[in-house]
Amino acid sequence: MKNIPEVKVGLVAVSRDCFPESLSVNRRKALMRAYEEQYGAGDVYECPVCIVESEIHMKQALEDIRQAGCNALAVYLGNFGPEISETMLAKYFDGPVMFFAAAEEDKNSLVEGRGDAYCGMLNASYNLSLRNVKAYIPEYPVGDAAECARMLHEFLPVARAVIGLSNLKIISFGPRPLNFLACNAPIKQLYNLNIEIEENSELDLYEAFKKHEGDERIPEKVREMEAELGDGNQKPEILPKLAQYELTLLDWIEAHKGSREYVAIAGKCWPAFQTQFGFVPCYVNSRLTGMGIPVSCEVDIYGALSEYIGICVSGGPVTLLDINNTVPTDLYEEEIRGAFGYGRNDVFMGFHCGNTCSAKLVSPKMKHQLIMARTLPEEVTQGTLEGDIVAGDITFYRLQSTAEGALRAYVAQGEVLPVATHSFGSVGIFAIPEMGRFYRHVLIEKRFPHHGAVAFGHYGRALFDVFQYIGVEPGEIGFNQPAGMRYATENPFCGK
Predict the structure, then answer these.
(1) What gap in Å lies between CA 458 and CA 468, rounded to an integer?
(2) CA 250 to CA 220: how far, in whole Å?
(3) What is the rounded CA–CA span in Å between residue 370 and residue 426?
(4) d(C-alpha 434, C-alpha 394), whole Å
(5) pLDDT per position in the chain (496 positions), as tens?
(6) 455 with 350: CB under 8 angstroms?
(7) 14, 31, 172, 496: most buried, per Cβ within 10 A?
(8) Residue 150: phi, psi to the nearest 5?
(9) Maximum Cα–Cα distance for the chain, whole Å?
(10) Closest CA to 78 of 129, 35, 30
(11) d(Cα 277, Cα 210) in Å, to the nearest integer?
(12) Long-range contact list for 26-34, CB < 8 A, 24+ apart?
């Protein structure tokens, strides 16, 4: 994945001057040993310059981790810690920061070797608030060396997403299609997140596409596509145009990302795209997403943003799907009931025309876009990638700006079932516990659009932490609440 940051965490231990400095030194070293044993070396740099006890030490440590190329900071309370200098370190560091603390080791060390970091975390959190410093604090932030190593490792995907967002540009082409205003949202929150947005006309894109006619790189790009599709290459005649379009987007990214390192695209794919370009862009969108460059459909800017966060967190391809249709009763009764333990309202079909990376589809095939072909000549609707989505764990999620300009998000973990969909497009049968209630009281109640991002694996913990870190207000991150945990608007008399 070339389109996401590499994270290097600077581990800085702190110590209050009335506690033995050796406590923090030894606990930092034990933490590093545990981390390297569990996860290997390379992600974390152990700051050896000093144990931070004062503002002078803080400046020295800050300079050291900057020189070491660290773009994330972990402040480790080996003992109670100096609340002023440790939070100043976080304030002056330009990047994501976490705070965590050491637990006591054994009963024989509770006099000269007691660190009181459990207490110190309280003062640290209070001082962070006084200074308006945002920091990642694990769910239970105090532990032994192995537990703190796990916390540090769990910080990496959060840090990767935060760093990526701070250096991201979203490039869009065209306005939202008619009747897809649900994917429209105020862009002010993008600027609040330090994200750049470049909005272009479809004519700009079409002009660039025409200039790529006869590009000498097209034959090689076609060969790449042929190798990827294999026996699924059912529309070989359209590959040269798709190759031309892919080169157009890749060149546009290089020419337009400007000062930013990372890019996501919100693309226009209908209604005039097919008749003017002569194909649908779905397969190219799927390929770019497989390269780590998410491309949302229907100029869904917050969909592209959500996909990018998922790529940072998971380190792999994601997709954007419609939360689309119910599973027919006969299909549920014959192939799901009793076999998987999900109720009928727990399952639904996630679908889009053909934008999902081929690596996440069962027997992907290049076809024409069936929905578009109902009103257009079939030859201009070629270029979609169809197949059932591979079975396995997933996380459905989205970050959205409301019409009033506030950030809102949801996260729900589940799975794609190994059940044939009997349908078309990039499609799968998704199962999320208590999906029916989640659909009603989060997706509908909170006015989310029909597009949801999908990460392949269970990443709810990291996504939830990312959303909190970037400023989604408490209570504005929805999730699929278990049975017995009532939503605020849920009628307590239903079902009685």
Answers:
(1) 18
(2) 15
(3) 12
(4) 15
(5) 589 999 999 999 998 886 777 788 899 999 999 999 999 988 999 998 768 878 899 999 999 999 999 999 999 998 888 888 999 999 999 999 999 999 888 787 777 767 678 888 999 999 999 999 999 999 999 999 999 999 999 999 999 999 999 999 999 998 777 766 667 788 999 999 999 999 999 999 999 999 999 999 999 999 999 999 999 999 899 999 999 999 999 999 999 999 999 999 998 887 888 889 999 999 999 999 999 999 998 889 999 999 999 999 999 999 999 999 999 999 999 999 999 989 999 999 999 988 899 999 999 999 988 888 787 888 888 889 999 999 999 999 999 998 888 999 999 999 999 999 999 999 999 999 999 999 999 999 999 999 999 999 999 999 999 999 999 998 999 999 999 899 998 988 876 5
(6) no
(7) 14
(8) -65, -45
(9) 82
(10) 30
(11) 9
(12) 26/78, 27/76, 27/78, 27/102, 27/115, 27/145, 28/76, 28/78, 30/145, 31/76, 31/102, 31/145, 31/148, 31/149, 31/152, 33/145, 34/145, 34/146, 34/148, 34/149
Question: What is the rounded distance in angstroms from the CA atom of residue 399 to the CA atom of residue 408?
Answer: 6
What pTM does this model have?
0.95
CATH number of 9-157: 3.40.50.10940
Token code pair at residue 416: 């794609």
Neighbours of 382 (CB within 10 A): 25
Residue with tokens 């965490």: 9
At 68 the three-state DSSP class reads: coil
User: Which residues have a Cβ under 8 Å from the Cβ of 278 and sit 6 or more positions away?
Assistant: 241, 379, 380
Strand partners, 408: 400
* Domain spans in the chain, listed from the N-terminal domain onward: 9-157, 167-479
Please give the backbone phi and psi of residue 132, each rounded to the nearest 5 degrees, phi first: 55, 40
Count of CB atoms situated within 10 Å of the CB of 234: 13
